[in-house]
């Protein structure tokens, strides 16, 4: 079983934000954690608003390695990743999935067919990314894996970095309104 690679590059972010957006709802990421992380346990992959997935990278600015894959079925959970969360999302027919960094200074589109998906976000080097803000090398790595699945609540699969624990506490576990 091999995935289709949708994106595999270093993305240069500001404010640590990487966003996937689609549809016509107009619900673009506006920094409102209460809305985009409502009823979620995790605090670094916001998927509470349909048509938007917000990824809070550990690195405030600079380059982070980002790979996005589409799998035909649930991939095996890979132990080398320090942090791992899962969320659900749906892409409607006719939606074009775009990706972008803060203010869309870097952006593109993903070939993600319509359907209901589970998204596993894996991270390695979040603490190094946070501490190495001005490091010229890539020190944090992200793997986003989509596969067809019915919607269900988000889940923190693994959390070992201090940075993921910070976001899970700050924006996860306590959101109560949509």
Content of β-strand = 35-45%
Order of helices and strands: EEHEEEEEEEHEEH
Reported CATH architecture: Sandwich
Quick one: CATH superfamily? Competence, DNA-entry nuclease inhibitor, ComJ
Taking all Cα atoms into account, the compactness measure Rg is 15 Å
Q: In CATH terms, what is the fold-level topology?
A: Substrate Binding Domain Of DNAk, Chain A, domain 1
Can you tell me about this structure?
This protein is mostly beta strands and 178 residues long. The chain has one domain (4-171): Competence, DNA-entry nuclease inhibitor, ComJ (Substrate Binding Domain Of DNAk, Chain A, domain 1, Sandwich). 11% of the residues lie in helices and 40% in strands. It has helices at residues 33-36, 126-131, 162-171; strands spanning 4-13, 17-21, 45-46, 52-56, 62-70, 83-91, 97-101, 107-110, 115-124, 141-148, 155-159. It has a 6-stranded mixed β-sheet with strand order 1-5-10-9-6-11. The termini are far apart. The model has no long low-confidence stretch (mean pLDDT 89).
Write the layout of secondary structure elements.
Layout: E1 4-13, E2 17-21, H1 33-36, E3 45-46, E4 52-56, E5 62-70, E6 83-91, E7 97-101, E8 107-110, E9 115-124, H2 126-131, E10 141-148, E11 155-159, H3 162-171
Parallel strand pairs: 5-10
Antiparallel strand pairs: 1-5, 2-4, 2-7, 3-4, 6-9, 6-11, 7-8, 9-10
Write a concise keyword list for the protein shown above.
mainly beta; 3 helices; Substrate Binding Domain Of DNAk, Chain A, domain 1; 11 strands; 178 residues; 6-stranded mixed β-sheet; globular; 5-stranded antiparallel β-sheet
């Amino acid at each position: 079983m091999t995935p289709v690679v949708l994106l595999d590059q270093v993305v240069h972010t500001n404010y640590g934000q990487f966003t996937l957006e689609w549809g016509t709802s107009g619900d673009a990421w506006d920094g409102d954690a209460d809305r985009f992380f409502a009823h979620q346990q995790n605090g670094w992959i916001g998927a509470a608003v349909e048509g938007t997935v917000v990824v809070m990278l550990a690195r405030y600015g600079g380059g982070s390695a980002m790979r996005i894959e589409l799998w035909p079925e649930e991939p095996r959970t890979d132990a080398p990743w320090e942090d791992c969360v899962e969320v659900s999302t749906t892409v409607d027919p006719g939606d074009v999935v775009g990706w972008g960094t803060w203010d869309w200074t870097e952006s593109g589109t993903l070939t993600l067919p319509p359907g209901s998906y589970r998204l596993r976000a894996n991270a390695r080097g979040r603490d190094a990314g946070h501490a190495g803000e001005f490091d010229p090398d890539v020190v944090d790595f992200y793997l986003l894996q989509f596969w067809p699945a019915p919607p269900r609540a988000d889940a923190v699969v693994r959390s070992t970095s201090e940075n993921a624990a910070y976001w899970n506490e700050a924006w996860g576990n306590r959101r109560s309104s949509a």
